[in-house]
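Could you help me review a protein record that somebody else here produced? What it holds is a sequence and that sequence's fold in token form. I need someone to confirm that the token line plausibly describes how this chain folds. Take the sequence as given and treat only the tokens as open to question. This is what I was given:
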Amino acid sequence: MNMRINRVGTSGLEVSELGLGTFEWGHRVSAETAQELVDAYAEAGGTVLELPSFASPAAEVVGSLSLPSEIALIARVGVDVDTRGARLSLGRRTILTQVESLLRRTGRDRLDVLVLEGFDAQVPLAETASALDTVLRSGAVVHVAAAHHTGWQLAVLRAAGIPLVAALSELSLLDRRAESEVLPAAEYLGIGVIAGSALGRGILPGRYATGVPRDSRAAGAGREWVTEKLTAESEQVMAGVTKAAAGLGVSPLDVALAWNRALPVACSLVGPRSVAQLREILDSEFVLEPEIRDALDQISDP
């Protein structure tokens, strides 16, 4: 695959069209496999490594790896875990503490993109903005992005002086909610979009067509996250994807990636658990004809 490099909105940040997610790292992906994934991904021109929530063990795995200098690390903050459980918190103390911890755990001297993991209506925006200004001025963070935000929330952050460069939002043929509000808001604000779960939480390649494989994500810790999308609506979408793939002589994965590739997004995130899965993704360069894309749009219209 000849990986495209895209500019993120109107910022100076550039990223590869595919980003490598680390959702399973530290769980069912060992450090050895993670290194193999990074090596193969970087060799193909990939530049984005995305960490899940702050509490994930993936940070320690990343800290044990040898990462090429061109790899940009995207890390999330804002999920605070204590005796009360997990909750959203974007106060100054949480942001500064979690940034410091992420730097230590990953062995990095900076985080290329710091992602706010939600919109915290309980904390004054001025406090969040002040904490972000501190880490940006210190060089600990280079850019700021926001995940799980609506269009108006993105606008509110910008109005508060938070220099957002990107919005992270789940976006695939199985989840197109971002198209109605996040994409137009991002375009208006001049910020980029990073599409999460580009393969529909692993469903779009067709692995769950006849049930839940024992080695699948839905058979492990990610069960609820995946099965949430295994609905009658997703079955209808998968039927259309499978039919299109069969008629075109390609795989459902090819169709799913081609659909995302045509979106106005800077990067689409994928989370392969093996080098074989990653190779299949990297080898996919299929392009959808407009009439096929229109048909898929109609089938998957939310």
